Prior knowledge:
Shape: globular
Distance between the termini: 28 Å
Number of domains: 1
Order of helices and strands: HEEHEEEHEEEEEEHHEEE
CATH architecture: 2-Layer Sandwich
Number of strands: 14
Amino acid sequence: YHYPRSQETIHECQIGYNKFIEKYEEVVENTKSYYIIANDSLTSYEKFKRTFNAIDVVSHETILPVILNKSKIQGDIVQTNEKVLNPWKAREMFMRELGSCIVSSVSTVYDKIYDCTYGQLIPEKNFVYEICVVGVVKLKVACESFGITVMDGPYFSIYPYNQSNNLYTLTHVTLTPVYKTSCVQDVKITQEDGRKIVALMEETARSFILNYDELFEYVSFFTSVKTKIPNETDDRSMKCLHHDGSRITTFMGGKITGIFGITV
């Protein structure tokens, strides 16, 4: 749903979504996931619905547990059956399954090495690394878990992060990536700078959610690195990159469900 302009990414997610839920059921949780189309969105409400209805995605309009600024929105609100990944449970599961496989050095010669480090083992010339700030906010009222994403442009997303503690992530298309580089660097974001960035995200959220301050309060932020291959269609589907003269193959993808599309 986040990539309505990339049929490749939509197709990959459609194939891998149910497979991921079936294989990793213990790390996914239910939530009400809502998509809102802004007036000056890069895609229209009708086109958004038409795109996903065409590939048999179930969606319908509903009422959010928030007060929306309807003057900034086109069409109705789209509710999806999209689930949420619990990062805490995912970390525990993958450490349990892969923890014994961790090595500090490689002394054996192998026929093949498959790089799944999000493009950080062998950087390519056309890779762009984004240092990202992700806000963490707390839901202050009692209601069902939900996620909100405003499409499609310089907007925000609020999504469940730790449901047991009512914590949500707050991200923004243009504010979350605070630094772009062609090589991986350890860029430090101070507490003051991180808080200022999240405050700007909250300003955008308030313009769409009129009772934002009644619902949420700031808790903290964290940083992450996002690796991208620039393209015109916003394609984030899995790519298989073979390095010339090397036995190393790099897999690059922006969606976790893309793991089921890997072929070697």
